[in-house]
Amino acid sequence: MEKKVAVLPGDGIGPEVTEAAVKVLEVIAKRFGHTFHFEHASIGGDAIDQHQNPLPDETIAICEASDAVLLGAVGGPKWDQNPQALRPEKGLLAIRKHFDLFANLRPVKAVPSLLHTSPLKEENAKEVDMLIVRELTGGLYFGEPSHHTDEGAVDTLLYTRAEIERIVEKSFEFAQLRKGKIASVDKANVLESSKLWRKIVDEKKVAYPDVEVEHMLVDSTSMKLITNPAAFDVILTENMFGDILSDEASVITGSLGVLPSASMRADSFGLYEPVHGSAPEIAGKGIANPAATILSAAMMLRYSFGMEAEAVAIEKAVDTVFEDGSFTADLADSAQQALTTQEWTEKVINEIESQSVSNSIMNSYV
Ligand SMILES: NC(=O)C1=CN([C@@H]2O[C@H](COP(=O)(O)OP(=O)(O)OC[C@H]3O[C@@H](n4cnc5c(N)ncnc54)[C@H](O)[C@@H]3O)[C@@H](O)[C@H]2O)C=CC1
Ligand SMILES: CC(C)CC(=O)C(=O)O
Ligand SMILES: [Mg+2]
What we know:
Elements: E1 2-10, H1 14-32, E2 35-40, H2 45-51, H3 57-64, E3 68-73, H4 88-98, E4 103-109, H5 122-125, E5 129-135, E6 143-148, E7 153-156, H6 161-177, E8 181-186, H7 192-205, E9 212-217, H8 218-227, E10 234-237, H9 239-250, E11 260-264, E12 270-274, H10 291-303, H11 308-323, H12 341-354
Parallel strand pairs: 1-2, 1-3, 3-12, 5-10, 8-9, 8-10
Antiparallel strand pairs: 4-5, 4-11, 6-7, 11-12
Bound molecules: 1,4-dihydronicotinamide adenine dinucleotide, 2-OXO-4-methylpentanoic acid and magnesium ion.
């Protein structure tokens, strides 16, 4: 197959981790007989510096001409005092909105060889296998009005019925492919938007009798994610709650550096990016963990290109490298044992190259 991928490295560690993922995709292309055309474009602080715009028209055009987008991360102290319209994060929100990427999938699965790095007791972390389905283009991050003065500030939490319905349906579809359990997380004891959210979940569940649904409040959910994370299968939630809960869930499996994500619209087009941010304090040092971005590239192969065996080849290689005890600094026991971003990526590439093709259907991350 021939596919076009827009690559938006962004800021901080974004360029390092996307470079690693592109190298892995190139090896996959060679091994499985595909051609991937990569076209790079700017977003975030990088785009502000070059074009005074966190999401330039040229970047949108390159993404529109592509089959999928691979993104690193945006943001950093250099732009923190910029006016709102010139913040790197605005570029990320704008690309999600422009392409209607309403369904953000964030799988969190325990990896046996990483359990020792989890802050949780091994018996609590070892069975974790959940999928966070986060609404990505509505809610507080997009509602108007949104502004502040020194005397006051306003943000708006707005959801339409249609926005809630489509993400709820998506979560039921994923639950049917998994263990058939949804925890729908809201704040319905306070928020009006959550009351509508609950009503729509209850309406929709009638069409999915094989799926069990539990409504949960976000505050106690954040506690249960730590005390009993293995109890969750699909977590369905709105934009900001999903943002917060997914960073919390990431440490269960060891490091924010290993959690991938897919941001999908209704068709197969998607944007793939790690859950983490631009980690400015480690940028440029060659020590960032590229696993989250490499695994996001695997999600791209699965969801946008329908390349299941290729996705599994990457996931299997990442697992094997972890099993071998090879870690970047965020997971290694000591600085001496830590591999650089490049060294760790080379291990994954070597692993893919040595896999036999018949070996490629193994357990996948979602
Ligand atoms: N999707 C995106 O582009 C996101 C961007 N951000 C932006 O990133 C900047 C930094 O935000 P933070 O709150 O510090 O979150 P962060 O996710 O960048 O970093 C949190 C912690 O995790 C570590 N970390 C993150 N990714 C890592 C990796 N791949 N390997 C090793 N360690 C890793 C960092 O060093 C830091 O200690 C801010 O400007 C923020 O707005 C934050 C979250 C998402
Ligand atoms: C930087 C924000 C706009 C988004 C974020 O933190 C996320 O999507 O995880
Ligand atoms: Mg976040």
